[in-house]
Every structure is written in structure tokens, then in C-alpha cells.
Amino acid sequence: MVMHSHTGVLERSSSGVYVSILGFPNVGKSALFNSLTRGNVEVANWPGTTVEVSIGKTRFNGYEIIFVDMPGVYSLSEGGVTGSIIKFNLLQVKPHIILALVDGSNPVRSLNLAVQLLEFTGNVIVVITKLDLAHSRGIHINVEGLSKELKTTIVPTSIVSGLGLRDVLEAIVNTYKSRGREAIVIDYGLLEQYINDLILKLKATSLLEEVNIRWIAIKLLEGDSYIEQMLIGKGYSDIVDYARKLRVEAKSIIGRDPADLIVESRFKYTSSIASRNITVSKLRINDRGVKSSYDVDKLLLNPRLSPIISLTVLLGLLTLAFTINTGFPLNIILDAIGFSNFSELIETYSISGVMESIINVIVESTGSLLEPVPTWLQSLIIDGIIGGVSAVLFFAPLILTVALILAILEDSGLAPRFATSLHLYTCKFGFSGHSIFPSILCLGCNVAGLMSLRAIPSIWERFKLYMLLPLIPCQARLIVFVALASALKGFISIAALIIAYIISFTSLAILSYTLDKLAKNSSKPILLIEIPSMHKPIPRVLWWLSWSRLKHFLVRAGTIIFIGALISWILTHTTLSLDYTDDPAESIAANISNLLAPLLEPLGIRGEHSWIIVYALITGFIAKEIVLSSIVVATGIEHPIRAIESLALSDASTIALIIIIALYTPCLATVATIYSESRRVKIAAVAVILGLISAYIASIIVYNILAQLIT
After folding, report:
1. Cα–Cα distances in Å, from 227 out to 92, 122, 256, 617, 641?
2. pLDDT tens-digit map of 273-290
3. Is the pTM of this model over 0.70?
């Protein structure tokens, strides 16, 4: 249904996705319209009037989308020319999709129009505008909760930063593909019997197949003149007369005009939803009536002090988060200075330590119950199913803790200040100040770091970070580094760890530069960010933000992790003849490893044990900690360091292997998160490919250099 205006009058044709944009005056309709259409705009007259409307087109994912910027309107009950144009658009032109704009800086009031449109059709996308302005005013919107209650897609946007514009286009295409969502139904109390009477009358007409007859019935009870004239024009004047009689009867019995009752009931419905999903912080006002952030900005926006303060606070918060969840890095520090007992205590009673104990009890109990069943079924249930579930659950507390910290930083106003203070340094590597928090998070867990990228407004920077942040070694890789380095002797063991981190961050910088060149992106990263007034975080808002991120991980990434764990079990417990085996050396994975073993020869890794290293790298795709357990199982030596020593690798080959583990393909949870967050298979695939290529090239270079230096 394409809109053309070659003759100066609005016309229709049969192709394309037709989208009407509706909202209050000054809600940001024109700004959104121009941003979505990129200036590809025509002007036409609305049929039968001298009113001009703007029509714009764009292409997205193979679809031509035609936007019509409708006049600003406060309610579908408005009369006059504007009200008639809106209703003509809804009832005669019949857009495929409606964008209902809600002013983020005044959401409660402007939400009422969106509710009216959702009563008309379920094919409505609610677009929240001016999100940056909303935050600066201490307004917080629970987008997920609002979406659930209104049963529609809600997209937060900011024209200033470009946030959400691509999401709007994606929502349009997805809604177009799955049209047919039911309109919402509001209970109008005493008026319901009259609405149902009119619905019975309207069911006998051809309108049943053309429009939502409940909405028509409500409009008739309101006394909407446009709807009355439309029905009269279609030959249904008897229904209009009946509706007028019902209106008089209702007013006589109830004692109030039905139109007033409808407006009041709808307002109560909207206010009830808003009260549960919209909250406003109390901002401090100084003596001049200006929102004040006290003296915090004197420090956090100071060009000399702010980077130091920002990094210190971020590292402190994340150290606390990871220590609570896993014991890292405090356990390593305590162990290094001779307090091994305290280090072990922290690991044991960390959240992951406690969870591991609980899961071990479950595994033991399950094993006892499954003794009568075949061995392969025991292994499938314990190692495959329970192992897959536990892999997801181990991440959950960490994701929730990090999400809570991120929510506190966002809600308090600290996050934009940290981004601003560090932007000058990060932009030298092709990233804005927004990237510093996710990067630091990745040192602890790549999954947590990737999930924090949603707040980055630049689509290119966000996608680039999805592909490159997995190059930052997480704590799981550090565990493997330490074990491999421990098999080395003397100072070289410490040097190996330092080299691994230098190579990782150098690779990230080089690839960032390369991707920018390939994308012909020569401009420096721009930090477009609203610096809101500081305020105390609101517990309800913190829960909204934290739970949303956790649920997103459990539902999307968790599903992929679980399936991946089952596939891995099959590969490591099945022979080429499809028989069950508990010997990894006989498995499909081992046979694949033997085929790939020659790839490690340029690193000096060859001989009868080379397949074990390939096997460990393959299983390390599930989780990097498994690299060590795979070596232990394959060698039959229980002590990890002794197992590594049994592989008889040279020092240069061991360090090259550390480089591979630092850079090669992210773990399954990370890949699942990249896909679920970016919603792009290509982005996840490129992240894996870049990691593999970088790991192989860097490890060969390091090996050849060290092979000459180390005798």
C-alpha cells in the first residue's frame, strides 16, 4: 500500500508497508519521521481537504516502508478537520501499522492516545520519544512492563543520540509479518451492556469484516459525529438511531453522559498501568530553582581528576561484584601474598561456590537414583541436561549483580558522567566513552560486558563492540592462563600472562581500526549524551532494569547455552559408529581433533599429544574452564599442572597456546549473548571468525619470536 503524490493529492497503490505516525502536538513526530525517512519526503493534500500531509519512504530488510506524518492530535474523540483526517486514515486508508508516539518527558498524559489506538487495533507500535530528556527530568519508564500490560511492542527512542531508530524499523517489519494482534479491551463498567447491545447490531453488518466493531460501538456511545456520518453513508442509519436512544437511556439511568464515563474509565485504566510502570525521581533544586548535582560534577567532569575517579569507582564496584559471585580477583590476590586459606574460603563461600556445592549434591543424588538405568542415559542426564542447566544458572547471579550495578550507575546519573570523563581516551582507539564500562566488565565476564552494550546509541559502535569485546580475556581464561603459565619455570611464567593481555588489547585496537577502514568510517566517535541531574536510585527502577537484563539472558542466551551443552555431550560421548563411549579419545570430538591437529604444527605443537590440545580447545568453546578439565580427562592425570606438563610442550609453544586461548572463539555463552543482543547471525559469526584468525596469526608470530629468544 504505497502512498504517492505525483498529482499533489494523496493516493494509494497496492505495494509496500503503510505506516501512520500519530501523537500529541510537539511529541517529536516530525523529528522521528525525518529521521526514519532520511529526507525522502513528499507532500500531498488529504483527499477532500486542503490539509497537507508529509509522506516519506525508506527500505529496510527488503521491505518498502511508507510513513505518513499525521497531524498532531490529543484524542481520537476530537472533532473538526483534524479529527476527521485521523479517522479517515484509520477507517478508510487503513494503515498496516500505527506508530503511537508517547512523550517520554510527559508519558502519563500522552499514553492516553496510545491506549485509544490500541483499542482500535492491535497492530500498534508504541514509540517513546525524548528518552534523553525524560532521564534528565528523573522520569523512568519500565518498557518491558508497559509492553506486557499493553500487549504490544514498545520502542524507546532519542533523536539526539539516534537511539532506537533501527529498532523502530525492525518492529515495523516484525509487526507487519505477524499482523492480527488483538486490540486491548477496557472494562467500561455500567456501559458494557450498552456496548454489547450495539455490537450485536453491528455484527449483522458488513463492518464486522472491515473494522473493530467494539471500537465503533464505543464511538457511537460517545456520540462521535464522524462515525455516525460514516454509518449513515453506508446505509446504517437505523444503528445510529438505536445508538442515540441507548445514549439517552444510559444517561437517564446512570445519571452521567456516556462520553464522560468512557473518558473517565479509559483515564483510570491508563493511570493504573502508568502507576505500575512509570516513576519520577525527586530532583534536588538549588536556591535558583535549577536542578542541582551538588559538587559531584566538580570532580566527575574535571578533565584531570575525572578519569582516575571514574576508573577507580568502576573497578571497585566490579571487583566487589565478581568477588561476591566467584571470589575473583580477591582470591588470586590473597593467594599471591600467602593467604591461601582465606583465598580458598572466599572461593568456597562465593555465590558460584555455594551453587557448585548445591549442584554437586544434586548430581550425586541423581546419580544414586539413576543407578538402575543404562550408563549412557545416566551420563546424558547428569553431564548433558543437568550440566547444561547448571551452565546457565552459574551465570545468572553474576548477570543480576552486574545488571544491578549498571542500573545504579544509570539511574543515579553516574554512568553518563563516567562516559564523558573517559571519552577523550577511548576515542583514540575508535570507541566512545560509552565503551569503558562494558570493556572493564569483560575482564570479569564477556557475557556481562556484552549485555551492557544496549545503552550505546551508535549502532556501528555497538556492533563493532559485539565483535571485538570477546577478545578481552575474562576471568575464566585467566584461570587457564595461570595453569598453563604455572607449567613454565621462572620469570617467564609471569611474562606469559603480561604478553597475553598486551596481545589481546593490541588485537582489539588493530581490528577496531581495520573495521572502521573497511566500513569507510573515518569520523571520530562522538559522545552525544544527556548529563542528567544526580539523584538517589529508586529501588523499583533498579528492579525493572536488573530483572529485564537477567530475564533476557535466561530466555535467549540460556536456551542456546543449554542446547549447545547437549550437542557438546553428544560429540564427546559418541563414537563415529554412533555408539556411546565414556573415553574421550574414542569420541567424534577426538576424531575431529586428530584431523585438525596439523593446524598446530606452526606453533611447535605436534606428536601423539597434539590432538588433546585441539580437543581441549574445541570443548573450551562451551566454557573456557573446560580446557583444563579436558586435558585432565584426556591425559588421565588428575592434577591440571601435571597434566599440562605431560604434554611436553616447549616454553614458546606453551605461551603461543596461552595466546590462542586469550583470543580464539568466544565461549558458547558469549556467542549466544552476541546473537541474542544483536539479533544478527552475521555479527556472532564475524566475532567467532575474527577471534580464530587473530588467535592463529598472533600465536604464530609470538611462537616464532620466542622460539628464537628462548633456548
Report:
1. 12, 20, 22, 68, 81
2. 999 999 887 655 444 444
3. no
